[in-house]
Amino acid sequence: MSANAEANPAEQAVERANEAVLRRFPFDDTRDLEDARRGFLGTARDSLVTDAGGGVVWDLDAYGFLERECPATANPSLWRQSRLCSEHGLFEVTEGVYQVRGFDLSNMTIVEGERGVLVIDPLICAETAAALALYRGHRGERPVTAVLYTHSHVDHFGGVRGVVTDEEVAGGVPVLAPQGFLEHAVSENVYAGTAMARRAAYMYGAALPKGERGQIGTGLGQTTSTGTVTLIPPTVSVTRTGQSETVDGIRMVFQLTPGTEAPAELNIHFPGFSALCMAENATHNLHNLLTLRGAQVRDPRVWSRYLTEAVQLFAASTEVAFASHHWPVWGRERVVEFLCEQRDLYAYLHDQTLRMLNLGLTGPEIAERMELPPALERAWHTHGYYGSVSHNTKAVYQRYLGWFDGNPARLWEHPPVESAERYVAFMGGAGEVLRRARQSYAEGDFRWVAQVVGHVVFADPDNAEARALEADALEQLGYGSENGTWRNFYLMGAHELRNGPVGTPTPTASPDVLAALTLEQLFDSLAIRVEGPRSWDADITVGFVVRGGDTVTVRLRNGVLTHVTGTDPAAAGPEVAEPDVGIALAEADLRALLLGTLTPAALAARDGVEVTGDIGRLAELLGHLGEPDPDFAIVTP
Q: How far apart are CA 398 and CA 340, in angstroms?
């Protein structure tokens, strides 16, 4: 064990567990490696992708160490998966369909049309999406004639301005997306975006050093790029399964899959290429039913049924299936086998979790008992590299029964710090806890060490010995994890216990995302920033008359910010005859005010803005808003 900031070697218990993984699974099966390299045409000459200021947002050589034999500090199965995901370059999927892989967490797919190309899922940031130049270097200077977002997660739209401009879209280049895309894309990154982005720093480990004792990948891809997140709103909405669209001579038949990997998602069949794009609904891993960064729980029952439907709709005319992560599957029989095994994976977790919860087992108990059928476990693509059997079964439990396990002893527990102080006192004080924890560490019970020493850290966050011991235990747990995001969480926890917080390397609430918010979403985003207790006695009403638009009355009362559209201010609550201040303005000025780029005083001074009443009341209302904290503590109180 070590109290300094340097990473430790693997303990014997971890070494033995990782050696057992090598004996358990068929590491001599090279089919995935052959598929991951199939169709390789070349890669970029410059390994660094930089932003306008010269900062590195992606390094193609960062994972070169994965070429070496797996060390004791990594689970061999995760090492294998990360090695496959680190293959980078331009790949031919089938004649006319290409993928840029290994330039970000996700893949960018390029489909050739009559005049130009359709770009599917342009990565996370504009800088990495500029890898479209790699395609053009091999296939010629073809213009982008359409863009398609398969779903509403940032790694599938954030780089759009790296492949197309607003002027090109205004000039007729369509941007296609599933129904509900924009609402979910922007709300996820704004409402709970600060918390999600902070936790994503743990999930993806972007701030960790890359190497044998550090970050080696996430299982879904390597990590998140750190460039400029952009968004151009869709111009064509896919609203039903079976809808067909043809752009630049490319015919697409869509299958809507809401409530699967994303709340707005679709699969696409390309009849002219006998190719099926599975978006992120069937990839070479068990996916998340509840991502560790936080999200709404996904529905594995619906997910499995959409996979069945995809087989029914498209398998007979499909020779290759590809996704926005990982590598394709070729051959009709293999495609059907792959999709059906993925289907069975999600259905099994759903059905067996329900069976066990109806026997009275709780989420953690089900997670410990759940085992996959041998036939599924033998398939590499069912392994929990990104989602896990453990946290997915807990997600199913949460979806149906919520956070409470039914035991009244756990209905009203003390919060973490207060619980920690009591646990430590009951166990004889910090010294006694640490003495016993060191013994458990020597026995290889790192789960227990992390759990019990975490109480000492929360009771006394300045206890350097406790912080060091918990960090060491988390590190060993990371070394043994087959799941990439578990490894990153453990190693990030160890890193922050030793070195302090890293904050949020990849914020997603970019100017483009904020600009896509509706006025209703903007008002909602203000409401969740009201500091409730400080605002209990406030009663402020502001009326906005948007020129060419609606009248919106906003009222702060009882610590709640309510907004009502319409001309009757009384709808905002009792005893409101007229607003304290009325403001007639353009929508652009209202947006600037709500986004915080325009102060009330500056607003009142703008040409064309008419104020009736005391503008100071608007400033007073805004003064009740707090700011989210992108650097909040996770492993300490």
A: 26
H helices of 254-388, where? 300-314, 332-357, 363-369, 374-377
Tokens of residue 296, six digits: 């709404």
What average pLDDT score do residues 38-51 get?
97
How many CB atoms are closer than 10 A to CB 396?
A: 29
Long-range (24+ apart) CB contacts under 8 A made by 69-72 are: 70/18, 71/10, 71/212, 72/9, 72/10, 72/14, 72/15, 72/18, 72/479
The answer to whether the beta carbons of residues 129 and 160 sit under 8 Å apart is yes
Yes or no: say if 297 and 68 are a contact pair by the CB < 8 Å rule.
Answer: no
SS3 369: helix
- Residue written as tokens 């903007």? 522
The Cα 525–Cα 523 span in angstroms is 5
CA 309, 313, 318, 320 torsion: positive or negative?
negative
What is the rounded distance in angstroms from the CA atom of residue 288 to the CA atom of residue 276? 22
Q: Is the pTM value of this prediction over 0.85?
A: yes
Amino acid of residue 107: N
Of 421, 418, 481, 422, nearest in space to 447 by CA: 481
Mean of the per-residue pLDDT values of the chain: 96
Give the percent of the chain with pLDDT over 90. 93
Name which of 400, 328, 325, 332 is nearest 361 in CA terms.
Answer: 400
- Specify whether the CB–CB gap between 463 and 479 falls below 8 A: no
State the CB neighbour count (10 A cutoff) for residue 191. Answer: 15
Residue 429 has which token pair? 């004080």
Query: CB neighbours (10 Å) of residue 264?
Result: 25
Element (H, E) at 561: strand 560-565
DSSP-derived secondary structure letter, 141: -
Does the pLDDT of residue 572 top 80, yes or no?
no
Residue with tokens 């998140």: 224
| Strands 244-247 and 236-238, sheet pairing | unpaired
| Rounded Cα–Cα distance for residues 442 and 14 (Å) | 12
Q: Closest by alpha carbon to 508, among 42, 277, 210, 194?
A: 194
- pLDDT for the residue numbered 1: 41
